[in-house]
């Protein structure tokens, strides 16, 4: 039950939450990217519309100024002026009407009949024409003749002495501008407003100004207008397919990560269980050894004494051979019992601070004699400075002797055994290297398992004892071995504080 809940929580943490978070980020990123693309496209459309409006106003103003020159040649002939205005209005679709006012701002002629003259002198754009004597574009105004919203362009009619003799006015055709802008980019909504903020031109009576539709507003250079273009909504039909693909990919990847984590956790759990089994084995062996060691040794002592007496009584060579074999086997049993005791719980031992080099020097005499016996060269390398460790001298000697004994058994005459002693990073280091046969990988994996041995007469406890002793002193032991090249045993022990 607990394992199932743990797996569900792990799946939520590794797969569900990261997938949702990543998907949200991806959706936000794609939405933002598409909005930015829409914004750039809207800016391009706004530039296009503004360029058209500038060109339209420029052409309209130029056309009106040319018409003013024609009107100026009529010498104030009302019929001639009216005829020119009607003729021009019929030919130019950009304008909805042309009008003529005198210098006092009284509008009395037009392309459409004017029954009663209209005073427009109070219009700001008329005042600007009279004062500055230049063409002016009006804001959105209510036409006093037709009573419709209108935009007018006014230009002065000047005498040879540059005096204003009249004012020529044209009314712009809104639907002409709107149709042209729609033909340029029919998908976009737009608005044109004057300097007062009044919208006088747009392409949609029900234009929706939503938060999703960003807008770009640019000033029109030729008039005091602004063109506003609204972005298109995000194309969700192209957004969601790519998003779902990325969602599936992220879900696939997070599931792979979940399986890898699950595999790692299972591997660690299996490793922990193996360690616990080893500890249980050692505890079982230790408990067995502690309870039976004396019971085994006491009869062995008696047997050994009796065998010694019998060996003195029976001197025949054949009898002596048997007695020698019995003595060796008794010694072997004692050795196994001693190793059993070390495998159990750590016993109280007398510890004090020793120089590791002194311990190695003492034990090297035994190792040297063993090396001479096997025809092996012994090389010892030690640092000059002291290497203090807090330990039992006999324990460290036993570790060194057990490892070198294995090394001698793996080497042949003419091989080399190297013992290096030093310190680094608050650790004493012992490195024992032989040039023997080495070990295959399948043996290296089991080298510290109790009772595992590759030798015919081994107990499988030698290296286990070594590791147990090193662990007692909070040290570390590792083995690097290459088949056919040799083996290196690396031991680390904490340096003593002195």
Distance between the termini: 53 Å
Q: Main sheet?
A: 6 strands, antiparallel
CATH topology of the largest domain: Beta-Lactamase
Fraction of helical residues: 40-55%
- The CATH architecture of the largest domain is 2-Layer Sandwich
Shape field: rod-shaped
Average pLDDT score: 84
- Tally of helical segments: 10
- The CATH superfamily of the largest domain is PAS domain
Q: Which structural category do the helix and sheet elements fall into? A: alpha+beta
Could you explain the architecture of this structure?
The strands form 5 sheets. This protein has a 6-stranded antiparallel beta sheet with strand order 3-2-1-8-7-4, with helices on both faces. Strands 14-16-17-19-18 form a 5-stranded mixed beta sheet, covered by helices on one side. Strands 10-9-12-11 form a 4-stranded antiparallel beta sheet. Helices cover 53% and strands 21% of the residues. The chain is rod-shaped and about 170 Å long. A hairpin with a 4-residue loop joins strand 9 and strand 10 (199-202). The protein has 3 domains: 1-234, Beta-Lactamase; 249-341; 346-494, Histidine kinase-like ATPase, C-terminal domain (Heat Shock Protein 90). The longest helix has 78 residues, at 236-313. The protein is an alpha+beta fold and 498 residues long. The protein has helices spanning 2-72, 78-91, 124-132, 174-184, 236-313, 317-343, 356-374, 393-410, 441-444, 462-472, and strands at 95-102, 106-110, 118-119, 136-137, 141-142, 149-150, 152-158, 164-172, 189-194, 199-202, 215-220, 225-230, 352-355, 377-382, 388-391, 416-424, 427-434, 476-482, 486-494.
